[in-house]
Structures are given as C-alpha cells and as structure tokens.
Amino acid sequence: MTGTPATGSPATGSPATESSATESSATTQETSAGSAPAPGPWGDSRPRDLVGIGIGPFNLSLAALADGVHGGLDAAFYDQRPHFSWHSGILIEGTTLQVPFLADLVTLADPSSPWSFLSYLRSRERLFPFYFAEKFHIHRAEYDAYCRWVSGNLPSLRFGHQIDAVRWNPERDLFEIDFTQLDAEGEVEALGRTHARNVVLGVGSEPYVPDPLRPLTDAPAVPVIHSADYLAHRDRLLAAGHVTVVGSGQSGAEVFLDLLKARPAGAEGLHWLARTEAFTPMEYSKLGLEHFTPDYSRYFHALPQQTRDQLLPGQWQLHKGIDAGTVSAIHEELYRRSLHGGWPDAVLTPGVLVRTAGRVATTKVELHLEHVRQGTRSRLTTDAVVLATGYRERPLGPMLAGLDPYMRYDSAGRPRIDEESRMVLDSSVTGSLYVQNAGTHSHGVGAPDLGLVAWRNAGILNSVTGREPYPMPRRTAFTSFGLERHQEPVIPGQGRELTPLAHGA
Prior knowledge:
five-stranded parallel β-sheet, globular, alpha/beta, 19% strand, 18 strands, 12 helices
C-alpha cells in the first residue's frame, strides 16, 4: 500500500545526505569549535525527555503529536539538511500518494490537531477548492508542501545538525548524543553534545543500486541514475536516444509513463525491464488493506521470527506493486500512440534480471540480461538507465557504535524491536531507543507505510510519558489475523476438556 518512496530521513553522512543531529552542549551551552561557549537557543543543558534523530515524515509526525501533549514534553528533533525536503527527485507532476489524505502526520491519532492536512488547507484558504475537488489521494507535491508547512512552524525542529554518535551514559542514566552544527553551505560551525532520556531514530532509507550497475553510476558521460534523482536528470534523459527503466514498482511505472508522454510518437526509444513475472497492480482491496492496520502489526510481531521471514517475501504485492490507475494510464498512452497504425517504440519486458553491465565506447551502456523462466540471455544497448530499484533501510552501525554492547539482535543479525517500536537493549539501560521505518522484519509490511505513522507515534508518546495523551484504538480491522489461545469448553457427556488449541494450528 505504501507505493510511495521510502519515508524518513537519513541521519549521518555528508551534508548532501538527508540527516539529523542534536543541539545543546555537554555543559550548559553549545560550544563553538575554536571559540568560547556561547548561549544556545535552549539556554541550558537539562536532559530532554525525547530527542528525535532525522526529520522525515515519520519523526515530523512525532514532533507534531508531541507538540500537542498536555503538560508539556521537552522534545527536540534534529536533521542534517538545511530544511525539510521529501523525495524531491521523484515529485513528478500529477503523481499522487497511494494512501488517503487522512494518513497525514496526525489525523489518525488526533483529528483535532492543528497540524492536520485539513488545517494546512485552511491556512492556505484552500478548503473549499479541496472540498469540490473530491480528492481522496492528494498530489505528492502537495503532501511535500504540507510537510514543509508543518516543519516551518514547529518550534522543536532543528535543521543543520549532523549526528555523530549516540551512547549510553551509565553514570547519568541518559543517552549522550554528539553532534556537528552546519552552516547553510554544509560547513562545520560548531560541535556539541546533548542528553536525553529517550531517543527516536527516524533515519529513513537510502536508494538501492544493484551490484552489477553500481560501477556505472559514477560515470558522468552516460546517465545511469536512481529514480530518486529522476527530476534532476530529466532533461538529459529526454535528450537521450534510448532510455531503459529497470524496476517494476510504482516509481518505475511513474518514470516510464513520464518519459513516454514526453517523447515523440514512433520514436519513443524506451525499454522497461522488471524482475517480477508481470507489471502487477498493487493489492488494493478493502480487506487486503487491513494488512496496514495496528491489528495486523501486532499479529505479525507476535509470530516467531522464522515465520515472519518466510511470510514477508510473499507479500510483495501489498506494497511493491503498481497503482492500478498508473497501469491504466500507461496502457492508455501506448494505445493512443497505436491508433494510426504501427506500434510505439516502447518495449515492456517482465521476468528479466540484469546479470552484468558494461560500457560501449564512452556514450552507451550494455546490459546483459537473463530471462529466468525462458532460460535465455540477451544484450541491450542503451543511452541512459533509470534504476527504479527501490530503497533499503539505512545502516545504523556507525552512529550507534557506542550502543552496540547494549543492543540485542535476532538470529539474522538485525536489531530486535519490541511491540512498541523500541530496540531491545540490555536491562542496565533505563532509557528507551525507539525506531521509525526500520522494522519491516519485526512489524511487517506496514512498518514503512504512512498510514501507520500517527498510530505508532501515539504509542511512542504514551510510552515516553507513562500516561495516555493519545488513547489507542482497541480494534482496527474486520479481519481476525490469528486464533485466540483458549481452553475449549467441556463437551457434554464426555466429561473431559479438549487439548488447548495450539497457536497457529
């Protein structure tokens, strides 16, 4: 159901990456590199209740909900970037979110929040136009504008800070967070440290490039780019004689459609490759969507790890398929171009993987293809490649190296995450380390879905405050995803009880 680029924001790395960091110093003020301590914007070094690392939509949602906690919550959120930006390279004109507008930052936890999408429309005097437009799925660019509106108004956000390390300080029973403050050009301005009782990692994901194509992305002569950077290279791609799109998800479909619409009929010069058996629509039935409910997340988390790992690959169509409307638009555009005879110069080939790739002279790329079912191999020469090959959870190792002795991992080497989205740490750690958009292995396909953001963050805030500022729904799906453990009743006349029903039987 997600269908959108991965949500979240990277946390560490060069200023060019999406990142986050903290702000008050280890003493009473921020310290500037090479200068005397200067008063920071917060004025003291008291430990915060909550520090968020990364300001993508997930932690932005948490910040917005934290702003509404009655009685106050000392929270601060940090990001390396100079301002909020959400997948600007794939905000293709006309593309929409694949979740309804109700899956904004706050509404599914607090419909009365001043940070809802409807509040944003009211601030722009656009409620009536939206009302008459009758749009349930909003434009992706509009969602980005909404998030930028929220980020520009919340006082707890701090951009231009890069997190360097997160440690546990056993003497103070606090998390210790080192940061680098950056100027508008990404240059180092100051170093500092802050402390927090609880930390939330919202570092998001990063574009994934398959190994066979990784060396080609560094060559400027032939554009081989990830779809995350599509708009920045769109003009070069349109000027190329032949373009190949690799990847069968929503991003690949949107890029292919955008290129198809912009290229002349009869000279499209496009090839769309996919490893999947077909260019398959996303599962979007009403009961299918219930896999993106809190009920399913709880059910999935309670399954044994081995069962979860076996289940996930078969659920790809729930979140990696193509929106049916996009599929229809592609077919309609191809059909329109065939009205006067002839076929468009566009080839769509599923069931194919790229084995290796190389250069032809300095201006072309040769892809070595294999059709798995057919058992055949071929070569494709192209002038440009767009890799719509998805995203991967961003590695947390460098930033969390100081916490490694306290962290607990599953048998596959992944962090163990409890039902409330906390990383499982050694019992000596009294603070909580929560994680956003990095728990597909523990919480299922809904982990990166925008529709569960507000619910998960409401749970985090309930946990942090020790009360319930946001009441949680007891039931969210008509589907019962498992059998309850219980004793069968005594059968009259038999005088004995049946064996208790085994879980998963």
